[in-house]
Amino acid sequence: MTTASISASRRLRPASAAARETAAGNSAAVPAARRFSRPRFAVLVLAGVYPLITALLYLLLPLLQGWPIWQETLLIAPLMVAMMVWGVIPVIQGRFHRFINPLAG
Predict the structure, then answer these.
(1) CA 100, CA 25: separation in Å to the nearest integer?
(2) Model pTM?
(3) Which of 56, 69, 99, 102 has the fewest C-beta atoms lying within 10 Å of its C-beta?
(4) Angstrom distance (rounded) from CA 40 to CA 44
């Protein structure tokens, strides 16, 4: 593709609504930038995972007495991962969105 065709294709693309409003001088319509906070997310995941893994251990360890540790882990780890992926993390991202994505700046 040549530079002439690239600049022609750029002219043909419609401008985004935010770019049009900024160009028109209306900066109030542009949303404030947010940044993802890994430490905040980690604290919330820990707060959700700790009671979950504790409950799992209380429920399953009496049933698994006599099993080698690697077999216990082989049973508990997939349960924990599934509960995190389809339970804990979506709840944290939904309910604490503003806390884990504070305004930048």
Answers:
(1) 31
(2) 0.65
(3) 69
(4) 6
Q: Is the dihedral of CA 62, 64, 70, 75 positive or negative?
A: negative
Backbone angles phi, psi at 78, to 5 degrees: -65, -35
Other C-beta atoms closer than 10 Å to the C-beta of 23 total 9
Q: How far is CA 17 from the centre of its chain?
A: 26
pLDDT of residue 36: 93
Rounded CA-CA distance 64/67 in Å is 6
Q: CB of 58 within 8 A of CB of 19?
A: no
For the chain, the residue count is 105
Task: Give the pLDDT confidence score for residue 1 in this predicted structure.
Answer: 54
What tokens appear for 37 in the block? 């906070």
